[in-house]
Design goal:
alpha/beta, Rossmann fold
Length: 258
């Protein structure tokens, strides 16, 4: 689909990658963007920048009623971008309990599922010109110990994305999965590693949608991991991730402390 003239909805639009998605959508000619966040006061700067092209929507993707209300407000959406996410930076054993896993699954998996359920009928009205974009991760493709529970949630979201392609195919809604490594946002603050900019990730994602790519690899790390997977070079991936995990724990300790 083409971004120009589309009506988009972006979850987690108040900062980081979500805000960059809004900027990129308007730059590419989107007619309107529903910018969503739990606190609509945090969306003021977007409204100041783009005026009536932005409609602020209060949304908590973990709440059924909130999601249902958003679907009623944004009944003309043609492009749904499920960007909202949470990262606890813990492995399962490191956490010592299930709470981080529950928290990440609630947002990163069930939040995406809630949004897709609520907005599938809305997108169907666009008649073969609508799309769902789910923000995934290289962690969907291979687990990484320091972010173990996050990777579980993103792997599950990838599976959901793949299944939804078949479920929404008949109504003409394309479903895209976006894969990225570390992105320089508040979520990754304090992590010392190579990172892509959120502006680049947003731009590459929208270009991929317009090109019809269903799996959109963004940033150097996603392309590198995908290449190794295509070559079935699993040992190289495994060793690289083990080395990164060892370096992380050596620097921060297994409890995440400095």
């Amino acid at each position: 689909m083409q971004i120009a003239g589309s009506v988009a909805l972006v979850t987690g639009a108040n900062r980081g990658l979500g805000k960059c998605f809004v900027d990129a959508l308007i730059t590419r000619g989107a007619a309107k963007v529903y910018a969503c966040a739990r606190d609509t006061a945090s969306l003021t700067s977007l409204i100041d920048s783009y005026g009536d092209k932005i409609e602020a929507v209060s949304l908590d993707v973990t709440d059924d009623v909130s999601v249902s209300n958003a679907a009623k407000i944004a009944g003309d959406v043609t492009l749904l971008i499920n960007n909202a996410g949470v990262l606890t930076r813990l492995g399962l054993i490191e956490a010592g309990n299930l709470e981080p896993l529950r928290q990440e699954l609630e947002v990163n998996l069930y939040g995406v599922a809630r949004m897709c359920l609520a907005f599938a009928p809305v997108l169907k009205k666009s008649k073969n010109n609508s799309a769902v974009v789910n923000m995934l991760s290289v962690g969907s493709l291979h687990g990484f110990a320091p972010f173990g529970t996050y990777c579980v949630s993103k792997a599950a979201a990838m599976s959901l994305t793949q299944s939804l392609r078949y479920e929404l195919q008949e109504q003409g809604t394309s479903v895209h999965g976006v894969y990225a490594g570390l992105i320089a946002t508040d979520m990754t603050e304090g992590i010392e590693d190579e990172m892509a900019t959120p502006e680049d990730i947003a731009g590459e994602t929208l270009a991929g949608i317009e090109s019809g790519l269903l799996d959109i690899d963004t940033g150097e790390r996603a392309h590198a991991v995908r290449k190794l997977l295509m070559e079935e070079n699993f040992d190289t991936i495994e060793q690289a991730y083990l080395d990164r995990a060892a370096g992380h724990y050596q620097k921060h300790g297994k409890d995440g402390s400095a």
